[in-house]
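Response to reviewer comment R2.3. The reviewers asked that we include at least one raw input/output pair. We reproduce the pair for Protein N-acetyltransferase, RimJ/RimL family here without editing.
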Amino acid sequence: MVELRCFTEKEYHQFFKGYISDPLMDPVPFVYNKEQISRSYAYNHGGYRENYAHFGIFQDGVPVGSFQLKRMDPVSKKCEFGIILQNDLVKNRGIGTEAIRLGLEAAREQFGMKTVIGDTMGRNKRMIHVFEKLGFTLVETIPGSFELPGGIREDRLVFEKNLEEV
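Raw output as returned:
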């Protein structure tokens, strides 16, 4: 069973101890640093980020991902979201799709959002498939927006979902 809920600091560390960056998105390997992760936890969970909500993604009680609602605008009722999964062992199993679905529900029901925006690199076919499966619409392509090591540029694809249609 997939659930979204706040991380405890211990769970946050557990998640990052097993985190392996996706070379498709970030070719620089992640190295766990206890102090850095403690600072990140405090920043993300200590109320320092106004208009953000940070959730852990749990599969059968084990932390396997991180989901954020970002830049929630109480006037326009729009926000963005971000998601990372721990490693390849939890990808392609529907966990991310279910976490996003739960996050959309939270955006609408807990925070009153009407529109959610997500983006990805043009090369991230998995995420594009998830956007399409969940009913997002491609609203913008920004050529060369992502800069990768070696001077490689990648398009940013921006998707939007109207939560009033859910």
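The domain at 2-165 is CATH 3.40.630.30 (Aminopeptidase). Residues 35 and 89 are 26 Å apart (CA to CA). Further pairs are available on request from the corresponding author.
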